[in-house]
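DM from R.C. (forwarded with permission)

"hey, sorry to bug you on a friday — could you get me a structure for this? deadline for the figure draft is monday and I only need the backbone to look sensible"
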Amino acid sequence: SGAANPPVRRVAIFGGTHGNELSGVFLVKHWQENGAEIQRTGMEVKPFIANPRAVKKCTRYIDCDLNRVFDPDNLGRTVMEDIPYEVRRAQEINQIFGPKGSDDAYDLIFDLHNTTSNMGGTLILESSRDDFTIQMLHYIKNALAPERCPVLLIEHPSLKYATTRSVAKHLVGKYEK
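My reply, with the result:
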């Protein structure tokens, strides 16, 4: 059998990937002031506002959707180009929490969103082949029981995700009504 996966040591919690989705913004700001609530022994847990300009304006984004620009073309664009704010921000996030696809990348990014759909608290999973993430979602579902917490699998066999959370080795989105 192969070597066990290395332990998860560095976790980021993102809010404000979309600046008008306020649950994540509120929680991240709360945890920035009350960090003891999310700290765990042997782990670094970093609460982070992903799109501060959009949060300040309470708008989804400034120039383009931050949750769609974490692809090699955008991450590789040069500073000299006149690039959209969110592309520049994606590059900054990739420097802090990545680089995407590298051993240095954060182990997990938990990206908090809101939706207008009446779906309650829902976990979004992009890979059914990531054992750690599946075990973590199972743990979360048990911890929330008897409250419903569906898991939505949005796996695509050939699509390379360009979401904010795709910078990490393991990716999870959490959506709240």
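R.C.: lifesaver. Residues 12-175 form one domain.
me: no worries. Strands lie at 10-15, 44-49, 108-114, 122-125, 151-153, 170-176.
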